[in-house]
Structure formats: structure tokens, C-alpha cells
Amino acid sequence: MQANNRREGVLLLELIVAVAIIATIFLFVGRAYGVSKNSLKRATASLKATLLWEEKMWELEDKEEIRQGEDSGDFPGQGYGWKITAQNFDDSRLNLVTLEVFRQETRNPENFSAVTYIKNLP
Predict the structure, then answer these.
(1) Residue 122 has what pLDDT?
(2) Is the pLDDT of residue 59 over 80?
(3) What separation in angstroms does the CA of 97 have from each of 2, 26, 93?
(4) Count of other CB atoms within 10 angstroms of residue 69
(5) CATH number for the domain that contains residue 55
(6) Residue 29: what pLDDT?
(7) How many structural domains does the chain have?
(8) What pLDDT shows up at residue 93?
(9) What is the rounded CA–CA span in Å between residue 34 and residue 27?
(10) Where does the pLDDT of residue 68 fall: very low under 50, low under 70, confident under 90, or very high at 90 and above?
(11) Would you say residue 6 lies in a domain?
(12) Contact between 95 and 87 (Cβ < 8 Å)
């Protein structure tokens, strides 16, 4: 009789290596998911701040005169606030306006700020 040297089944070492490879893959997939989720949350907040900034700028442009100095307020029910600084530019009807929109309820404050010129209507 001939001895059967063929092994059948899976060795424990092969099983441990396979589990380690699968665990590493799950670790990288989980990390990528977390990063993409945070990026989506930040992009959504940035888009909302940009839209609120644009809304406030249209409101300012509709006014006949921009008051010089600083003013601030909030967007009701949005969780965002705004701060505006306006100064006369070069003794003309042109105003240098800085508008900042920021999140009020967050541990890591984020803001969106831009500078533009708005002309006072005669």
C-alpha cells in the first residue's frame, strides 16, 4: 500500500493569513468611507454658506445706500450668522464691502468670506 501524502483541508496558518488580508481590506474601506463622509459634510456646509452669502449680497445690492462701518446678524433657522464691513472707497459712491458668513453651532467654526464693491444708488 502506498501512503497518501496529499493533504486535505486548510491549514490554520492559511486561515489566519486570509483573515488578516480581509481585515486589512475592511480597514481601508472603512477609512475611505469615513473620509468621504466628512468631505461630503464639509462640502454641504460650504455650499450652504455660499448660497447664504449670495442671498445677503443680493439683499445689500437692493438697498439704495450702504451704511459705513460694521453690522452683523444671523440667518433665522439656518444656524449661520453674518458680519459685514463697509467703507467708502476713494471718496466716490463706491463701497468696499467685506461679507463673512459663518457657522454658529459647531466645534470647528467654518466661514466663507469675500470682498466686493457695491455702488450706492443716486
Answers:
(1) 59
(2) yes
(3) 94, 50, 12
(4) 9
(5) 3.30.1300.30
(6) 96
(7) 1
(8) 76
(9) 11
(10) confident
(11) no
(12) yes
The verdict on residue 84 lying in a domain is yes
1 assigned to some structural domain:
no
Dist CA 44 CA 41 (whole Å): 5
CA pair distance 69, 39, nearest whole angstrom: 36
- What mean pLDDT value characterizes the chain? 85
Q: Is the pLDDT score of 31 beyond 90?
A: yes
Q: Look at residue 21 and give its three-state secondary structure.
A: helix
Angle at 38 between CA 35 and CA 44, to 5 degrees: 140
The rounded distance, in Å, linking the Cα atoms of 99 and 84 is 4
SS3 of 92, please? coil
Rounded to the nearest angstrom, the gap between the alpha carbon of residue 104 and the centroid of all alpha carbons in its chain is 14
Alpha carbon 48 to its chain's center: 9
Task: Give the Cα separation of 56 and 70 in Å (integer).
Answer: 15
- Domain span including residue 83: 12-119
Question: Is 22 within a domain?
Answer: yes
